[in-house]
Structures are given as C-alpha cells and as structure tokens.
C-alpha cells in the first residue's frame, strides 16, 4: 500500500479482465466500473444510477454478477472479471445470450443491454447451481438446478431496469437460450 495525502491510499492489484491479466495501482476509493471504463477502456458496462439500483453496470466477478458501480476495485485483487466485451470468449462468435437479444430485438435504446446480458449469464449459472429465488417453489429439492419459467426469469432479473420497457423480449431471449 502506498499513500499520498493528495491522492489517498493506493494499492497494486492484479485482475484478470476478460481473460487478460492487468496489474494496476488503484486508489482505495475507486470502484470497479470506473476502473473498467476509464483505465481499461472497456465502455460496455454503463454508469446509470451510480447507486447500485439500475443494474446497467452489471459485470461478472469470479462468475457472480455484481454492480460494478458499488464494488471497490481494490477488493478484487486476484479476481476474474468478465464484462460484456469478454462474454464471447474468442470474440468471433457472440455469446448465445447476445445472439438471442439480437434475434428477439430485446432492447430499444440499448443502454441497459450490457448489464441485462451479464446479469442473465450470472442468473443462468445461479439457477443451474440450485440457488433459489424469492419465487422458487419451496417444494423444489435444494441444491438441484432450478427450473426457469417466465416468473423465475423475471424475478431473477428484477435488479436490472430498462427505461424502454423491453422486459417481455428480454425474457423471450433468455427462454430461447435455455430451451
């Protein structure tokens, strides 16, 4: 850790972002979203509310969906971060959810779309791992994959807001991927 009274405390961290290692000197107050957008030039994740309420900034940290506008970058030392730019892996073919969003026209202005897609990727992993949601039938066996119907999908994506109201097509796109 280093400290400069004008700048505040800093620490060197290493992140793997979209499969590439990055070693950065980071101010302890810097959030992941600003690091991604300003330091690494990854502008897919959007700053919507800057309060963790809209989900436009959603990325995956070690496979879990997070609001990057709230997460201090210094806490992620050694973590794997995946943004919308890294979902396709090789960059050649779009991720199945990206393709489904395009095919279903599951966006209007597109501002929330990167966060919606990253959230959907994380949500699919959570359901596959057996994590229940508020609407999961209590009779479902614990620890087994949770079946995803429209109600489950809507509940699990409820932290991602769309001002344009593209919700029905977003749910359609997710359903296309799980079929």
Description of the structure:
The chain is α+β, with helices and mostly antiparallel strands. It folds into two domains: 2-86, Ubiquitin-like (UB roll) (Roll); 96-178, Orthogonal Bundle (DNA polymerase, domain 1), CATH 1.10.150.120. Helix content is 29%, strand content 18%. The chain has five helices and six strands. It has helices spanning 32-39, 96-104, 113-128, 150-156, 167-178; strands at residues 2-4, 8-17, 20-27, 58-61, 64-67, 80-82. Strands 1, 2, 3, 4, 5 and 6 form a six-stranded mixed beta sheet that branches. A hairpin with a 3-residue loop joins β1 (2-4) and β2. α2 crosses α5. The longest helix has 16 residues, at 113-128. The radius of gyration is 17 Å and the shape is globular. It starts with a strand and ends with a helix. This is Oxidoreductase. InterPro entries: 2Fe-2S-bd, 2Fe-2S-bd_dom_sf, 2Fe-2S_ferredoxin-like_sf, 2Fe-2S_ferredoxin-type, 2Fe2S_fd_BS, Aldehyde_Oxdr_Iron-Sulfur, Beta-grasp_dom_sf. Pathway: Alkaloid degradation; nicotine degradation.
